[in-house]
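Standup notes
- DV: blocked on the single-chain target, sequence here:
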Amino acid sequence: MTIVSSFRRARRRSGESLRTVASRSGVGASNLSAIENGRRDPTSSTLDRLASTIGLEWVPFDAEGRTPAASAVDEITQAEADERHAQAYRRFLQLADDLASADPVKRVLLSAEPPDESPSRWLDAVAALVELRLREVSAPVPTWAAQRPGHPDAIWEPQRSSRPLPWAADRSQIAAEFLRRGVAIEKGELLSV
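- DV (later): unblocked, structure below
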């Protein structure tokens, strides 16, 4: 996760246009666009001004090499869009491991930032995973995950390799958080090996 990608997601969620934030913060619109698109590295004071403009506070913590859920969603949905299905699935499993290995406070911090909206069913799977991992340690589930309904009447199984393989998940082995969202990923798939 980068601070810039977190800022970009927060700005989009705020409903503020790039030009409005640029104008209110005193940062040129072309400069802000270059920052958001990775063509320019902002100074910390520029990022602080931009964050302040949309009411964003940074909460630094040691993630110990773990990727926050919002960043993982970006990686997963990009891999899916590029038809790198095995990579999307592996990234999802890495997120499952990252959350499982974190203490309760870090699980909350890794899950707090809402990911960008996406039509991808992977977002339903990540919301289910976040809810599952936080409930395991009796931690609060962020609103973005708790309120993600998924599609319970349209069961979806992710493509786990470069070629679609016949897979029939055993519904009795699917955690309630996943089943409620119509995502067919068995509990055993989430175990670290």
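- Follow-up: The radius of gyration is 18 Å.
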